[in-house]
Amino acid sequence: MKQQLTTERLMEIMRECAGYGEDVDALGDTDGADFAALGYDSLALLETAGRLEREFGIQLGDEVVADARTPAELTALVNRTVAEAA
């Protein structure tokens, strides 16, 4: 079985891709927060998607990633794609 993405790991990757420090997540529970409200723009999302594709060996379409508005939605999308690829 392939590994699953957690929201915590997603946020770690996003911080690395965007060049943010750990204090970005100090808002508390980020699962349902909109990426824009968390300070992540479309470029950060695209870079994150590329990193997720490499790390999980999957393909994510740019428009599909753009439709994910929250960390919980993107985490579910990645895990669903990983499961379908297995």
UniProtKB/TrEMBL annotation:
Keyword Electron transport attributed: no
Residue ranges of every copy of the Carrier domain listed in the record: 4-82
Pfam families according to UniProt: PP-binding
Top-level division of the source organism's lineage: Bacteria
Keywords: Methyltransferase, Phosphopantetheine, Phosphoprotein, Transferase
TM helices/strands, residue ranges: none
SMART domains in UniProt: PKS_PP
Single GO biological process annotation from the record: methylation
InterPro entries from the UniProt entry: ACP-like_sf, PKS_PP-bd, PP-bd_ACP, Ppantetheine_attach_site
Coiled-coil intervals: none
One Gene Ontology MF term: phosphopantetheine binding
Gene3D superfamilies reported for this sequence: ACP-like (1.10.1200.10)
Record keyword Phosphoprotein present: yes
Protein name: Acyl carrier protein
Lineage: Bacteria, Bacillati, Actinomycetota, Actinomycetes, Kitasatosporales
Gene behind this protein: snoa3
